Amino acid sequence: MPWNFPIWQVLRGAIPTLLAGNTYVLKHAPNVMGCAYLMLDAFKRAGFPEGVFEVINVAAEGVSKAIADPRIAAVTLTGSVRAGQAIGAQAGAALKKCVLELGGSDPFIVLNDADLDQAVKAAVIGRFQNTGQVCAAAKRLIIEQGVVEEFTRRFVEQTRQLVIGDPLSGETYIGPMARFDLRDELDAQVQDTLAEGAKLLLGGKKADGQGNYYEPTVLGDVTDQMTVRPGSIDHYRPRRAARSGAGQ
Predict the structure, then answer these.
(1) What residue ranges of the chain have pLDDT lower than 70?
(2) pLDDT in tens, 118-165
């Protein structure tokens, strides 16, 4: 299971599985193993029998052994396309049921007759909720020519108002990214895209101070040939690429 919603992602899979009379073995992302053991303790304290909900802390080889184990009846993964390809292939080789929820590059399309107040509000939430670290987040803005300038102006201004800070504060909307390497990779992608001719509308750099924070970033004039292009980035990032569309 992934790190972006380390409690909810597990519970939404574990609860229906357990209610159907099955057991559940969790292999969590390595940077949120504390959450895995927290849930294991919660299930034990709730009175679940030993072995009904279990946690394993293994590397890729251990995952492969678990999938091949005859006691495992089915496999599910929420994560990257690359991880999904590997897990799906192994589950298929073992003739086991497999459910994959992978990363995407979802478009957010705004036509000339759209209610811009509602569209901008939805676009900001759709991109930047959970610091943009959501697999189903809107990754690209495709705007019809008739409203692109006004929509972009409003979108940038609303994004500029997002508060960066302590994730435990109720006023914070943009918290730290999950890992420093993800932030550094994002920054490299943004800088490469700007060098390729994209226009920086907002942000575009690491936030000052401690922690792996990245400023909410909006890129304009993005083309399919650039580093930040449709389908090119599979991780979850607080970054938005926007481009205009000539027609519907």
Answers:
(1) 229-248
(2) 999 999 999 999 998 888 888 778 889 999 999 999 999 999 999 999
Which is the catalytic residue, given 35, 135, 144, 215?
A: 135
pTM of this prediction exceeds 0.90? no
Domains and CATH numbers, the chain: 6-101 (3.40.605.10), 106-220 (3.40.309.10)
- Triad 168, 159, 218: Cα angle to 5°: 115
Cβ neighbours of 203 (radius 10 Å): 23
3-state secondary structure of 116: helix
Give the separation between CA 28 and CA 111, rounded to whole angstroms: 41
Annotated catalytic residue within 54, 98, 101, 185: 101
**pLDDT of 236:** 38
Number of Cβ within 10 Å of residue 173's Cβ equals 21
Q: Is-catalytic flag, 135?
A: yes
